[in-house]
Amino acid sequence: MKKLKLLALCIAFSALVKGPLLAQTEKLHIPDIPGYLTLKGDFHMHTVFSDGHVWPTFRVHEALRDGLDVIAITEHIDYEGFPEEIEKNYNKSFELAKEAAGNKELLIIPGVEISPRVPPYHNNALFVTDANALPSDYMKSGKKEFVMKENMTREQLMAPFSEAKKQDAFVFYNHPGWGWWDGKDTTLFTSFHQELLDEGILKGVEVANSGKYNVIAHRLAMKYNLTIMGNSDVHYDVYPRYRDSHRPMTLVFAKEKTAEAVKEALLARRTAVFFDDYLVARQPEAEALFKASVHVRTEQKQRKKERTLIVHLYNESDIPFEIAAKSDYDIEGLPLGRVTLTPRDTTTITLRAVWDYPDETVLGIEVSNILVSPEETFKTSFILRNEEK
Ligand SMILES: [Zn+2]
Ligand SMILES: [Zn+2]
After folding, report:
1. Measured distance CA(80)–CA(89) in Å, rounded
2. What's the gap in Å between 114 CA and the centre of ligand 1?
3. Which terminus of the chain is more solvent-facing, meaning fewer CB atoms within 10 Å of its CB: N or C?
4. What is the pTM of this model?
5. Among 192, 216, 184, 175, which Cα is nearest to 74's?
6. Residues within 5 Å of ion ligand 2 by Cβ?
7. How far is CA 9 from CA 21, 86, 107, 215, in A?
8. What pairing do the DSSP bridges indicate for beta strands 170-173 and 202-209?
9. Ligand 1 mean position, distance from CA 233 (Å)
10. May I ask the CATH architecture of the domain 293-385?
């Protein structure tokens, strides 16, 4: 009994000391950037209307709990999990979610997933006006099993994309390289994808799916100038998978919180992906978000005969930033200038032996958990001005 009590105490204590930095149930604070709202989105999820296991209203409940601003429920147009119980109607899935969201602070975007097991593989179409109008004639059976026709044609595979184009949808390539990779095109960018790109249909790619980073997808995003997306692709409940961190999300930098503004931002490629402790973004969005999150204040201090410059970096966001600071002065106590800017906390860096305070000096920052390409981490700098002069 005593042992048990001690164990309970130890567990309680260790939870206090090193509890998860970000609990899934907490609403994450990610600041707006100049000129744009930062909307937290998840544009890929399923319900019982295809191969998911929850009702659409539950997706709304989860999204509100997790503090998301926008979601899309994206049923497979070519698969029905419960054909006897649920009539095939993908507009219904959207309507139920929309009704559940009511006038709450959550946008619901209509969407579907086109999901053949051959090129062009899985793609989501967002902002469709009639989800049921997308044909899936490449299927032999999609009722409780996924069987494609043996003699399906290229036309049949392209048909749902043509319809998506007609409906002015935003199409993105889901989880490139997932199980059905045929090995014929190792870049995973096939002639189908080239055609979709040439037709102006393909606009984005999932760089993170269900919490996993995809380097091939990131390369495709850079090479073909596609919008960077990161989504849960959840089929069951979100919570268990992400209980110790947070669900993956696409951050959308939108002019306002409306579906139209989300679409404009996606088309303009103003997004970032946040999964685990990583951010994936292009340089301008990485710069804007990092500078909106981290606020700098300097202070001059005399330490006996030595003069130092204290730099206070306050991180107002819930994203931890793993930085390496660089300065012309010596950085005290931090090998290679490495330190973590903990969420909602101030980190202090001391620059030593600053005999003559300059009017300004540059603090270089490299952030190892922000990727601006598959090979490059984000780099920026702060100009530290002498405000005491
Ligand atoms: Zn898929
Ligand atoms: Zn999916």
Report:
1. 10
2. 8
3. N
4. 0.92
5. 175
6. 113, 233
7. 21, 49, 43, 42
8. parallel
9. 7
10. Sandwich (2.60)
Instruction: Quote the ligand 1 centre to 105 CA distance (angstroms).
Output: 27
pLDDT in tens, 50-63: 999 999 999 999 99
CATH classification number, 20-276, choose in 1.10.1840.10, 2.60.40.1470, 2.60.120.10, 3.20.20.140: 3.20.20.140
Domain span(s) for CATH 2.60.40.10 in the chain: 293-385
Q: Give the ligand at the shortest distance from the Cα of 116.
A: 1
Closest CA to 156 of 134, 175, 172: 134
Q: What is the mean pLDDT of residues 289-296?
A: 98
Distance 283 CA to ligand 2 centre (A): 29
Q: How many Å lie between the centroid of ligand 1 and the Cα of residue 319?
A: 28
C-alpha 113 to ligand 2 mean position (Å):
6
Q: Which residue has the tokens 């709202």?
A: 37
Determine the distance separating the centroid of ligand 2 and the alpha carbon of 241, expressed in angstroms: 16
**Residue 178 alpha carbon to ligand 1 centre in Å:** 8
- Cα 66 to ligand 1 centre (Å): 23
Cβ contact 261:217 at 8 Å: no
Summarize pLDDT for 90-131 with one digit per residue, the tens: 999 999 999 999 988 999 999 999 999 999 999 999 999 999
Handedness of CA 328, 332, 334, 338 (dihedral sign): negative
Q: Pick left, alpha or beta for residue 195 (phi over 0 → left; psi -120 to 50 → alpha; otherwise beta).
A: alpha
For residue 178, the ligand closest to its alpha carbon is: 1
pLDDT digits (tens, 9 = 90+) for 321-355: 999 999 999 999 999 999 999 999 999 999 997 78
Radius of gyration of the chain (CA): 24
